[in-house]
Specification:
Elements (H helix, E strand, L loop, with lengths): L1 H20 L10 E14 L9 E16 L6 E14 L16 H5 L1 H7 L3 E6 L2 E8 L4 H12 L8 E7 L2 E10 L2 E12 L4 E2 L8 E14 L2 E15 L6 E17 L9 H8 L3 E4 L16 H8 L11 H14 L4 H10 L5 H11 L2 H10 L8 H12 L6 H12 L5 H20 L6 H16 L3 H14 L5 H10 L2 H11 L9 H12 L7 H12 L5 H10 L5 H16 L5 H8 L7 H4 L6 E9 L3 E11 L5 E12 L2 E13 L19 E8 L2 E2 L3 E5 L1 H9 L6 E18 L5 E21 L4 E21 L3 E22 L6 E8 L2 E13 L4 E12 L2 E3 L13 E3 L3 E6 L1
Antiparallel strand pairs: 1-2, 1-12, 2-3, 3-4, 4-5, 5-13, 6-7, 7-8, 8-10, 9-21, 10-11, 11-12, 14-15, 15-16, 16-17, 17-18, 18-19, 18-20, 21-22, 22-23, 23-24, 24-25, 24-26, 25-28, 26-27, 27-29, 27-30
């Protein structure tokens, strides 16, 4: 019995010893010095992966690693010392040869004395169970250098068993998965899970947004519980969603190899790591292992005023149609983001009235607290003398890529205050609606300012007594798209007067399918079929369009088809064209429409042979497996041949995501008296009116009026110049993506993607009693520039890749109607002008001392103009044809 007890105690003792000696992470042998080589390199390219097309650099060194202390109570508690020696910086691309910026330069000249000394000072790493407990270095070392040391130190954090866990290293707090094999461990870091404080923003709309993918894989070769080799590779790739030729890629690699071991420092005794650290060097201090932010200082860079002086000549009114205007606008916006309020205000106050509107566009697009405060101080909303500047400011707010609560709060304050112009007051409320939607899309619906704005819109709509106020709040709701506003919209759609009813139905038209419930469709069916009151054609046709575009039932489609033949003549033709367009374009409702058309009562010659000039057509501008651009044009005439409404839409789709690029609606009413014609049913008492409304990039703009009332019509007919009226004109920052990346090597990367455009949308309606002819014209002139800038910075050397893609395009729609006889003659045309398409690429490597290498490429082509089909009989898609121009390439020193 005594023998058994002794054997049991021996077993327990040996088992305890084996557990104590077991390590879950790397373990260093006592009194040994591990001598390794280390290198980290980074490459930038456009995703093609060819070394000769890349720019970047490599930092290499020898590394000494020694165990200073091991906790006597557990082998897995270690303090190690890591020292980088013989640091070198060189090109990754050895083909650079004599053009290498590092040729003939020592590490001391490349990095500077302070940086080199700091990088070669030893660092301490406290590991428990293979995970970093603390990282120790010296105070006041350059942050960029500390990050490089953090990148090396993070490689020593690993575990020798499979599993998923969270680790804190230079990349932040990240989810990592370990796959352990015989003598090898693979660590996969989910970079999208890393929690680290970094600045950045992006355009929330998926069509205009940037897609990115990041991977990190580290492979450890293990022998005797220590690494003999480590290979880490991290990649960051991005691409612009709607233009897949705009791409970029960052590849960062780290390599650590054991060369030899030799006798090292003796193990220090003690029970606490803190005591050992103090004994090694009292100047050591614990700092976060997570990478820290640093800013590279620009030596001798121009001030914001100097930047503006070189930019303003490109932003003269006559130059806005050129790509260089947009390119300089984008560059100046970037400079404004680092400027102070006083600097911005100084530029605003000294600028001439010709360039001020463009400067207001830029300042507002910067979207910083300083730029917002400066522009609000500069603009006087109590005065009606600067309406153009106020409107440019408000529209720039509406197109803001990443608006914040501060901006919304500022506009609410302006709306509640005194505003000199009623048009500006209306525009403020319309843009408040836009900001509400954008903030809600970015999970900001519960922000105090958003809640207040919602109450302002819904409460204002409920209490509005004047038609002007009702219209203002409906337009705001058309941008905000609040689900809570649908009951009010239904009330105004069914019971409101003509223009208000039409605005309410077009607002409902912008809501997504889940919000067009059976209850909503019941009201729309009553409006279309006029069950309770007589409605204008524009209201009825919009109600029918909403029903047909939102999962209509069999009976809803059948009733609409049965109504054709019982409607006013032009409305008959219009509804017939809508149904035919659904079938030809294979819209979602086409299947159920075809089912209904199998019934003879719905599909017969009497119903489908109705004559008229109204039309509806949808076609493709561009189509690929990845994306599609569509246009649609529907025109509704009155029975007398006068235009009632023309509606031109352009949409861009990426997968299931869509963007309402533009909508231009020209509407006219009450003009029958001019030609002694009889108004259609429900439109006998309409005032003479013509105007234009526009949506641009999902933002409803304030409608403009051509004339309102008979006397206004006559005065403008007598004094008409035929010049178009501008709906929107200005510079818009449309794509805005900024991302700061902490590479696990310690280097800092930045990805910037900006897209801007100079736009001018104008429209005109001409009416001739003498020739009994009306003409409408909508002209879109757009110049687009998209720039990308990828950089990787170590503070002493920087590599970058810049690209620019630009085009100047025009789209014009003209509709001419001669109503001297019936059926009246209609001529419609939509033309796209020939457009240049240019691409630029610039790659560079630059030392902080100023020496650099640059390579540039340029590619040009011409997109041929074409005419788009506008009716069923001519449905061949307008094809884009590229005419390539000679490429040019240059490289050299700078």
């Amino acid at each position: 019995m005594i023998l058994l007890a002794v054997l049991f105690l021996c077993f327990i003792s040996s088992y305890s010893a084996s557990v104590k000696g077991h390590t879950t992470g790397l373990s260093l042998n006592n009194d040994r010095l591990y001598k390794l080589t280390y290198s980290t390199e980074v490459l930038l390219d456009r995703g093609k992966g060819k070394l000769q097309d890349s720019v970047g650099y490599r930092i290499s060194s020898n590394v000494d690693v020694a165990l200073l202390w091991r906790n006597p109570d557990g082998d897995d508690d270690q303090l190690i010392q890591i020292t980088m020696k013989d640091v070198n910086v060189e090109n990754v691309n050895q083909q650079r040869g004599a053009k290498s910026i590092f040729k003939g330069k020592s590490p001391l000249k490349i990095m500077g004395k302070e940086n080199l000394e700091a990088l070669q000072r030893p660092m301490l790493l406290h590991l428990i169970h293979g995970k970093v407990k603390e990282f120790y270095s010296y105070q006041n070392e350059p942050v960029a250098i500390e990050n490089i040391k953090r990148g090396l130190a993070s490689l020593f954090q690993t575990q020798l068993s499979s599993g998923t866990t969270n680790e804190v290293d230079i990349s932040g707090n990240c989810k990592v998965t370990y796959q352990a094999h015989q003598g090898k461990v693979i660590k996969i870091k989910a970079l999208d899970s890393c929690k680290i404080a970094r600045s950045g923003f992006t355009t929330p709309n998926q069509v205009l947004g940037v897609s990115s993918k990041a991977t990190s894989v580290t492979t450890y070769k293990i022998e005797d519980s220590f690494v003999i080799a480590v290979l880490a590779e991290e990649t960051h790739a991005f691409g612009l969603n709607f233009l897949q030729t705009i791409t970029g890629k960052i590849v960062s690699k780290q390599k650590l190899e054991l060369k030899t071991t030799e006798a090292g420092p003796r193990l220090m005794s003690g029970k606490q790591a803190a005591t050992i650290i103090k004994a090694v060097d009292s100047k050591y201090t614990a700092i976060p292992i997570v990478g820290q932010v640093f800013q590279s200082h620009c030596k001798g860079c121009p001030s914001i005023l100097e930047h503006w002086q070189s930019t303003r000549k490109y932003l003269q009114p006559d130059s806005l149609s050129k790509a260089e205007a947009v390119r300089n606008f984008l560059a100046f916006v970037q400079h404004l983001r680092t400027a102070k309020k006083e600097e911005i205000l100084q530029i605003l106050k000294m600028e001439s009235k010709e360039v001020l509107p463009q400067l207001v566009d830029a300042v507002t697009s910067a979207q910083t607290s300083d730029s917002l405060e400066a522009i609000l101080d500069f603009l006087d909303f109590k005065s009606d003398s600067s309406i153009i500047l106020q409107e440019r400011f408000l529209y720039a707010c509406g197109f803001a890529s990443h608006p914040d609560e501060e901006l919304l709060r500022a506009l609410i304050s302006k709306f509640k205050g005194s505003i000199g112009s009623s048009d500006i007051r209306e525009t403020v409320m319309i843009i408040i609606g836009t900001l509400v939607r954008k903030l809600c899309q970015n999970e900001g619906c519960k922000l105090k300012a958003v809640v207040e704005a919602k109450k302002l819109i819904l409460g204002g709509l409920e209490k509005a007594e004047k038609k002007e106020d009702t219209r203002m709040y409906l337009l705001a709701l058309k941008n905000a798209l609040l689900p809570e506003g649908i009951p009010s919209l239904l009330k105004y759609a069914e019971a409101g007067e003509g223009p208000i009813s039409h605005l309410a139905t077009t607002t409902l038209q912008r809501y997504d399918l889940p919000f067009i419930t059976d209850e909503v469709k019941k009201t729309l069916n009553r409006i279309y079929h006029q069950n309770r009151k007589v409605h204008e054609k524009t209201v009825r046709t919009t109600a029918a369009a909403i029903i047909l575009n939102n999962n209509p039932s069999y009976m809803e489609v059948k009733n609409i088809l049965l109504s054709i033949g019982e409607l006013p003549q032009e409305m008959n033709k219009y509804m017939l064209a809508i149904v035919q367009d659904i079938l030809h374009f294979e819209m979602p409702a086409s299947k159920i429409v075809r089912r209904v058309l199998k019934e003879m009562v719905a599909h017969n010659y009497d119903r489908f042979s109705r004559s008229g000039s109204s039309s509806a057509y949808t076609g493709y501008i561009e189509r690929s497996p990845h994306s599609a651009s569509t246009y649609s044009l529907d025109i509704l005439y009155s029975g007398s041949g006068i235009l009632r409404r023309s509606n031109l839409n352009i949409f861009q789709y990426i997968g299931k995501a869509g963007l309402h690029g533009s909508q231009v609606v020209i509407e006219a009413q009450g003009l029958e008296a001019l030609i002694a014609a009889t108004p259609d049913e429900g439109e006998e008492n309409l005032d003479s009116y013509a105007g234009m409304s526009a949506i641009l990039f999902d933002v409803q703009l304030r409608p403009v009026t051509f004339f309102n009332g008979y006397s206004d019509l006559m005065s403008k007919m007598l004094s008409a110049s035929g010049d178009p009226i501008s709906v929107v004109k200005g510079l818009i920052l449309l794509i805005d993506h900024s991302q700061e990346l902490q590479l696990q090597s310690g280097l800092k990367a930045n990805i910037e993607v900006q897209g801007g455009l100079a736009i001018d949308i104008s429209g005109a309606m001409e009416f001739s009693l003498w020739y009994r002819e009306s003409k409408t014209r909508v002209k879109n002139r757009v110049t687009v520039v998209i720039t990308t800038d990828i950089t990787v910075d170590s503070s002493f050397v920087k590599a970058g890749l810049e690209t620019s893609t630009e085009t100047e395009a025009g789209l014009e729609f003209i509709s001419t109607v001669q109503f001297s006889q019936y059926p009246f003659l209609v001529c419609m045309q939509m033309d796209k002008d020939e457009a240049p398409f240019r691409q630029f690429e610039k790659k560079y490597e630059r030392l902080s001392t100023g020496r650099g290498y640059v390579s540039q490429k340029r590619k040009e082509s011409v997109l041929a103009g074409c005419e788009f089909p506008l009716h069923q009989e001519n449905s061949e898609m307008c094809k884009v044809v590229f005419a390539p121009q000679p490429d040019s390439t240059s490289s050299g020193w700078f």
